[in-house]
Write a structure and sequence with these properties.
single chain; four-stranded mixed beta sheet
Length: about 375
């Protein structure tokens, strides 16, 4: 982020957005495998459209997890989101399963054997980022966009907002001298019951925006947009086809920081697209929390089948109090960044992924069962001692 005055926009989408429905199903399948066998492998994709869902991909795990079991997992995920609509219903949707065993060539590259450590399950570069804009060390635009939609979803699930549907999108934050100071505009598109109109939806949405944004950050009335097309009754996969992995900027930092080449959802933690991105966020967050910088971007790169990362790059964006080269060396001493090392350090071989599929993979509190373990701040004291 620059240090001058500017306006920056980030977007969030709700759990009922068609792409997020697919992310949720794919991650629920990952959880199903990991709950049965912590070393299971998954690379699962989902497509959803009007009352039809297609599951595809590769897995390795217990034979008890059949296609029928996975179809049932998909139905339960759709039901939990809240889809009981004519065009997309958890009971009536036709679900096809085309998931098959993992390629033996990929398995050979990843599996440990003899003196060979377990290799990366894919290749490419992954990024992690943290900044001091919010207490959660996340960029303000994406953090508050997620929070607004999560508040609306909680009201819908609790029955406090029964006329809202599952599908929603939110997006603009003003910065002065590089610091967020308020929302110049707020746009919320929320699926709703046909019995109410735009003005009624606006007043249902309003408190969820006002209560989430810091005091004084709400935009003026002229720039508070709710359902600007006037009507949003047909939503979710009935209104727009959904695919796993199509909202990767929503999943990470809202465009405020780089994103690597791959999506997260549907992948077990041997896939460094997921696990190394979590590790990079973990390291960047601890750097900022330790007071070593106001902003930290970390890039790590892997080759498929190779255990150790090819490189680790640290950029403190001119806000650092320490040497970036030394910091890179210290971080690699504090954490083993091999796929096995990441999974062990963060405890990733657990069924903790369906909950990540909406409202961001980052900026969420660590949970007692190991969920969001990459948000821990347990390296802060060691980093401070090192410098």
């Amino acid at each position: 982020m620059a240090t001058h005055d500017f306006v920056f926009t980030s977007e969030s989408v709700s759990e009922g957005h068609p792409d997020k429905v697919c992310d949720r199903i794919s991650d629920a399948i990952v959880d199903t495998y990991l709950a049965a066998e912590p070393q299971a492998r998954c690379g699962v994709e989902t497509m959803a459209t009007t009352n039809r869902v297609v599951l595809a991909g590769e897995t390795r795990g217990p034979s008890s997890i059949t296609g029928e079991v996975l179809i049932d997992v998909a139905r339960h995920a759709i039901r939990d989101i809240g889809y009981e609509q004519e065009g997309f219903h958890w009971q009536r949707a036709q679900i096809e399963c085309h998931i098959h065993p993992q390629s033996i060539d990929i398995a050979r590259g990843v599996d440990a054997s003899g003196n060979k450590d377990e290799g990366a399950g894919d290749q490419g570069m992954m990024f992690g980022y943290a900044c001091s804009e919010t207490p959660e060390l996340m960029p303000a635009p994406i953090f508050y966009a997620h929070a607004i939609l999560r508040s609306l979803a909680e009201a819908r699930h609790s029955g406090a907002a029964p006329l809202l549907g599952p599908d929603a999108r939110e997006r603009r934050m003003q910065y002065v001298k590089g610091k967020p100071v308020g929302a110049t505009a707020v746009l919320v598109s929320a699926q709703h019951d046909p019995s109410i109109g735009q003005d009624e939806v606006r007043e249902i949405v309003r408190p969820h925006v006002v209560n989430v944004l810091p005091e004084g950050w709400m935009c003026d009335e002229a720039h508070f947009y709710v359902n600007p097309t006037g009507r949003f009754v047909i939503g979710g996969p009935d209104g727009d086809c959904g695919l796993t992995g199509r909202k990767i900027i929503v999943d990470t930092y809202g465009g405020a920081a780089p994103h690597g080449g791959g999506a997260f959802s549907g992948k077990d933690p041997t896939k460094v697209d997921r696990s190394a991105a979590y590790a990079a966020r973990y390291l960047a967050k601890n750097v900022v929390a330790a007071g070593l910088a106001e902003r930290c971007t970390i890039q790590v790169a892997y080759a498929i089948g190779i255990a150790k990362p090819l490189s680790l790059y640290v950029d403190l964006d001119g806000t650092g109090q320490v040497d970036e080269g030394k910091l890179s060396r210290i971080l690699q001493e504090l954490m083993d960044l091999s796929p096995r090392g990441i999974r062990t350090h963060l405890g990733l071989n657990k069924p903790i992924y369906a909950r990540t599929s909406a409202y961001g993979h980052f900026g969420r509190p660590p949970e007692p069962d190991g969920g969001f373990s990459w948000e821990r701040l347990d390296l802060v004291s060691e980093l401070r001692r090192a410098f």
